[in-house]
Amino acid sequence: xxxxxxxxxxxxxxxRGSTFQAERRLLERRKPLAAASPRRAADPPKPMRHRPRRRxxxxxxxxxxxxxxxxxxRRCVKCGGQAGPYGHHAIRKEWMRRMVVLARHMxxxxxxxPVCAPCHDRHETKVDPITRAxxxxxxxxxxxxxxxxxxxERYFPGHAPVLTRLERDYPMEAA
Length: 175
Fold this sequence. Notes:
This protein is mainly alpha-helical. It has a domain at 59-169. 42% of the residues lie in helices and 2% in strands. It has 8 helices and 2 strands; from the N terminus they run αααβαβαααα. It has helices spanning 17-27, 38-42, 59-71, 93-98, 117-124, 132-137, 141-155, 161-169, and strands at residues 88-89, 112-113. It has a two-stranded antiparallel sheet with strand order 1-2. Helix 7 runs antiparallel to helix 8 (161-169).
């Protein structure tokens, strides 16, 4: 057991009473609080203001952004001209809508092909379709095949309707 050292000339006093009272005085209020006004007590509390919720984007807005992102500063895979104003869906939108599980992937950027308007029209009317070789030269065909396989494995185990459709829509060579 340790004994307390005797107080000497340089030792601090253990009497903290005076210090404690000074600290207590600082914490005490100098004036009592004023009584609440009667009007304030009677007013009901105002409801909190919330930020307005942002409405979800419409399909038209999503489509506009998708087309812009697919074609922005890119070249047409068919003729090499400036792509746009609309991108091309590698897998037809109507077919993806019918296959309800694929509808959520309709606006994936990886499924977009940058083409110019004349080449897009010629592809859609089957006058001059975009070929696999043209997509491969642009570095898009492998990405499309990977996506098709991923979608087939996830939603259609055992058969490959997305890959089959992709291969049917894009011939090896122009006819």
